[in-house]
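Dissemination and training. As part of the outreach component of the grant, students in the summer workshop were shown how a complex can be specified as a set of sequence lines and then modelled as a single object. The example used during the hands-on session is reproduced here so that future cohorts can follow it. Participants entered these lines:
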Amino acid sequence: MTHFLEPNRIPIFQIGDFLLLTIQVDLEDRMIMTLKDDLAERIARTHAKGVLIDISALDVVDSFIGRMLANISAIARILDAATVIVGMRPAVAITLVELGMSLQGVRTALDVDRGMELIRRSADRDFADRDLSEEAERLHEA
Amino acid sequence: MRPEGERGDNSAETIPIRTGADVSRVRRSVATAMAIIGASRIETTRMVTAASELARNTLDYGGGGEVLIAVVGRMTRRKVEITFTDQGPGISDIDQALKDGHSTGGGLGLGLGGAKRLCKEFEIRSVPGEGTVVKVASWTERP
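and obtained this result:
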């Protein structure tokens, strides 16, 4: 609960295997750096399978913030968690493309429910892939 | 809602750009200026994003500087003009600096070219060793 006492920190909530965070303020550079550290630590501690980042309250995503969202996704992926950015405003999507930023490697969904569904499906698929590769190994050894 | 815009009053604000927090201040101030001229949501998003890129350029490449945000014009045509000024090293090849992917500061190099694409008006002057001035503008028209 200490997060709530710190105005410059974005609270991270755990819902089952997911971590959810809502970015509701104009992000200052320092806040997003802190967020990166907090989130990496929480993923490792909770073994979360997915991270949902709700940006529906953000009016602006510039190249700096876009790059940070891509970095967060990459860090989470290495820690075996999938990240989905949810709720991007239409004007923000248009501006990002005009700016020349395609957010490659970042998955998006229209809302939190769809984001969770996307992560669940990809977790199932990973599980299936793992089953297949174990099967292949067994066959190889036999 | 059409705040102050109907009154046709002009205003200007200068904000120093020394820290990341100042970049946030610039974004808020540009959003307010765009609301004053009654700009659309998408046009406001474009200008605030462009201003954010340019303010960061001023901070990262210009060694800091300042921005003047002005609301000008009367009734039928209202304009927001934003002028970024720094006394940094300047840019020797502006065409090159406007190309996507060009970066001397470790970023993606979308800043200058990206900002140019987002603005209705874009002007840049730079003297190596003396500094850089970037001026962008957007406007609304009413019959």
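The beta strands of chain A are 12-15, 18-22, 50-54, 82-86, 107-109. Students were then asked to discuss how this feature might be tested experimentally.
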